[in-house]
Amino acid sequence: MARVALTVQMVESAKPQASAYRLHDTKVPGLSLRVLPSGVKSWNVTWARNRDLAIGKYPTVTLESARTRARRKLAEADEHGAPLALLKSKPKDLTWGVYLADHYKPHVLATAKAGAATVANLEAQFAHLDDTPLTGISRAEFDAFKAARLKAKIKPATVNRDLDRIKAALQQAVNWELLAVNPLAGVKRIKRDIEQRIRYLTKDEEKALRKALAARETLAATRRESGDAWRVERGYEPMGPIVGYSDHLMPITLLALNTGLRRGEITQLKWADIDLAGRRLTVRAGYAKSGKARHVPLNSEALQVLTDYRKQHTGKGELFGIASVKTAWAGLMREAKITGFRFHDLRHSFASKLVTRGIDLNTVRELLGHGDIAMTLRYAHLAPEHKAAAVEALID
């Protein structure tokens, strides 16, 4: 969010990014230009906290026209509490189901990266609201939904995502002047305990994991050798020994263990994101959870893994070309005899190792790509000796 005295050149040159952003005009406080990932630019006016109204799209509405409209809307809000357009009668018979199908679904499919998943979730989780007018949706309605989800043992993080999706949908209805105010604007996400248990590999578990990975590679090499012997005996061309790794599992596991990348970040990596000479990889903004690009240095093991893996690839396109490691991971955990450990927990293992070895939490936050230090503070308890040293410094 930038605050500048907007010019025509600034508006014209504003480029779309991985997520929507706004340029706020200092000449008419309250006026902003919203730039969507799709490239659509729209003018909005804000007159109070969480009170926002779309007043036109650029270039149909020019900068000066937008300023004129914004001043008028702000004057109306000052006199009446809200722009007059919002105080007029709304289509009271517009139900959630109709709004979702006819208005929000086409919009989100066209503008959001995960639009299809968002719509599928809204349709599945809020089907009970299909016949409810938008004006009839209330905080009490969502509280009842939340209570039922939690009672069904749905994780708070999942319920929070439910809330985020429906709040965004209702806010868009406000932007389109189909709803006067967002009834869920003040509903807060469930706070999760930052001291929740963090599952990470013990030293013995890491040894077992590495042993299982090596055994898997050895078995694949043995099978290839046996298969080639069978082919030669029958006059077929042998496939030759495996160069690099037998498949994706070992390199993707070791890369996660040494970089702390999320599964979704790793599976979307491209060879263009890998700089072997510079010993770093780049997580692009388009697939980073935070929506911000970050550069992650490669330690010696991660560098060797990618160097070896490169031998069996062209070095173009996707790094791994897979969407999931679920089946292969489950088999690996059985072989390693490790229980209750998800692929995502490799990220916790990466962070835990850094903290226990004295790396400061802000550096850990940057490496993990956390937008909020509160997420990184979950690992603070793993370095009690640093806390002890800090309070000991008070003694003369």
Any overview of this molecule?
Belongs to the 'phage' integrase family. Pfam families: Arm-DNA-bind_3 (PF13356), Int_N (PF24624), Phage_integrase (PF00589). Keywords: DNA integration, DNA recombination, DNA-binding. One of its GO terms (biological process) is DNA recombination. One of its GO terms (molecular function) is DNA binding. The protein has 396 residues and is α+β, with helices and mostly antiparallel strands. The protein has three domains: 86 residues, 2-Layer Sandwich (Double Stranded RNA Binding Domain), CATH 3.30.160.390; 80 residues; 187 residues, Orthogonal Bundle (hpI Integrase, Chain A), CATH 1.10.443. It contains 16 helices and eight strands. The chain has a five-stranded mixed beta sheet with strand order 1-2-3-4-5, with helices on one face. A hairpin with a 5-residue loop joins β3 and β4. The radius of gyration is 27 Å and the shape is elongated.
Question: How are the SSEs ordered, and which strands pair?
Answer:
Elements lengths: L1 E3 L3 H6 L7 E5 L5 E5 L5 E8 L2 E8 L4 H18 L3 H4 L8 H16 L3 H11 L13 H13 L4 H20 L27 H31 L15 H11 L3 H5 L6 E2 L4 E4 L10 E4 L2 H11 L15 H11 L8 H12 L4 H8 L4 H4 L7 H9 L4
Parallel strand pairs: 1-2
Antiparallel strand pairs: 2-3, 3-4, 4-5, 6-7, 7-8
Helix pairs in contact: 4-5, 8-12, 9-11, 9-13
Low-pLDDT stretches: none
* Category from helices, strands and their pairing: alpha+beta
Count the beta strands: 8
Number of helices: 16
Per CATH, the architecture of the largest domain is Orthogonal Bundle
Helix content: 40-55%
Spell out the helices and strands N to C.
Answer: EHEEEEHHHHHHHHHEEEHHHHHH
What is the distance, rounded to the nearest whole angstrom, between the alpha carbons of the first and last residues?
A: 47 Å
Using the coordinates shown, work out and report the CATH topology of the largest domain.
hpI Integrase, Chain A
Strand order of the largest sheet: 1-2-3-4-5
CATH H-level superfamily of the largest domain: Intergrase catalytic core
Approximate strand percentage = 5-15%
Nearest-angstrom radius of gyration? 27 Å
What is the molecular shape?
Answer: elongated
What does the largest sheet look like?
A: 5 strands, mixed
- Structurally, how many domains make up the residues? 3
Mean pLDDT: 86
CATH class annotation of the largest domain: Mainly Alpha
